[in-house]
Predict the structure of LacI family DNA-binding transcriptional regulator.
Amino acid sequence: MKRPTIHDVAAAAGVSRGTVSRLLNGDKYVSPKARVAIERAISETGYTVNRAARSLVTQRTGSVVMVMSEPHEKLFEDPNYSTLIRVAIRMLAEHDLSLVMMMAGDEADRERVVRYVRGGHADGVLLVSTHAGDPLLDALQSGPPAVSCGAVIGRETVIPYATADDRLGARQMTEYFVGLGRRRIAMITGPMDTPGGIQRLEGFTDVLGRRATSKLIAHGDWTQASGERAMTELLERTPDIDAVFVASDLMAAGALAALRAAGRRVPDDVAVGGFDDSSVAVSTHPPLTTIRQPLAEMAQATMRLLLALIDGAEHVEPVILPTELVIRESA
């Protein structure tokens, strides 16, 4: 069967081909009567837009590329990413845009991303988990609009972003531990070239001041395995720890495993707090006391920034959302 064309739609609607073309390309100056007739004709004929042809006219590709600057395996381990992807797909679909997922965890991946974006295949770029000093940032500077889910260190005034108030959340958890009477409070941070790594540590030290010594701080990389390693390190250095704030739920799950292996009871011997309130927080034993960052709202805000830039906005303001302490059985 012959594929329906724009000429078939025009004939069925009783309008000119030009009128159909203007409607398909988003022109507002099409009469309501013609609009209804064209939409009915599209439905009846089964016509679908040829995106390649439309791109020649509109200079739009109809797609947004999500660039995740982490190793491939982290995409499937961390449930935060699935929330972002789900929200992005839904919001882009509402604007007849598609999501293209690309990884940029190593040099070969980054080169592939640069070729794709510079080749004119995307209307916008959504940056995820971008680390400070990432060479990809300079390479994408002259490309389509870009936004980030979470600030990019050193590019806060250049790349628009939406994020949770990481420093506030860390203060909330640390103050909660202090209120419980815990005296030897440790922390497992995220990577220190990410805003979550830096700002959550800042919130921790805001509350403890000089008591937040280097012996009480260990570093992870957001993975469960790194949380287990960091907790083991802390127990070896300072065995009298009675609380630990872990900068992500996934790392906190690793910390719980290390505490079990060391024979420490949670929360009796060591209280444990996480950050995210992801699905991990309710699947650990015991369930995690944690800081809720509004992941879906962050993703929505990030996508609104990007869609505004794609539609021609010259400037958008960053969005910072509040966090909330969620108390469960681990502390």
In short: The longest strand covers residues 63-68. The chain has a mean pLDDT of 91.
